[in-house]
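Database export, one record per block. Field names are fixed; values are copied verbatim from the stored entry.
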Amino acid sequence: MARRKAAVAAAASRELKKPAKKRVPPSPGAKKSKYLRAEQIFSRLQAAYPDAKCALDHTNPLQLLVATILSAQSTDKMVNTITPALFKKYPTAEAFANADITELETMIHSSGFFRNKARSIKAACQAIAAEHAGKVPETMEALLELQGVARKTANVVLGVAFGIAEGVVVDTHVQRLSRRLDFSKEERPDKIEQDLMQLFPRDRWILLAHLLIHHGRAKCIAIRPKCAECPIEDLCYAEDKQPIK
């Protein structure tokens, strides 16, 4: 037993003494090619979807905030069927803050997870009414302090309502297409967002998310993507591409 322990210790010591493998950085040419490809993809998607924008119906930052909270684990189409009556009944942050929680749950029931969403909307609006004079704050830090608001929701509100590019919205479509197009090899949305922010200039961040979302819905669908109709087919080398006839 003693000899075995000594042998294991000796092997471990030899491993520690081995020089660490150096990570070879990408060549300048490869790095330039990566950015050029990303710009080509962006330009083609912009040409293919010139009207790409947020699909959630809203007329002010508060409505967008509420709609984005409702969109979690739901669809924009479903949320847009709920919000007209909701926004008519609760036109201000104060109105949402004072809402009867049971009544609010009933109105948003079809969005799914309605109890958690109702609590988040009410609590967020209470904070907006009490701490921000009834107006949705315009900073990432302040938005993240609101209940039910994570980075994706904050990015939506900042980008769409205020035109402020603090990051890239990473929803399920952006997450899937970022990996499929080799913009990122990460799985976590926060890591993917960081990769996108490094790959694209800041003035592209807001529109980039809209373009990827539109493309993910129209052509690059999860099951049997419409590769023959894809405007960036020749720039995509995803392993599960559909054969072009």
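Remark 1: The radius of gyration is 23 Å.
Remark 2: Confidence is low (pLDDT under 50) at residues 11-26.
End of record.
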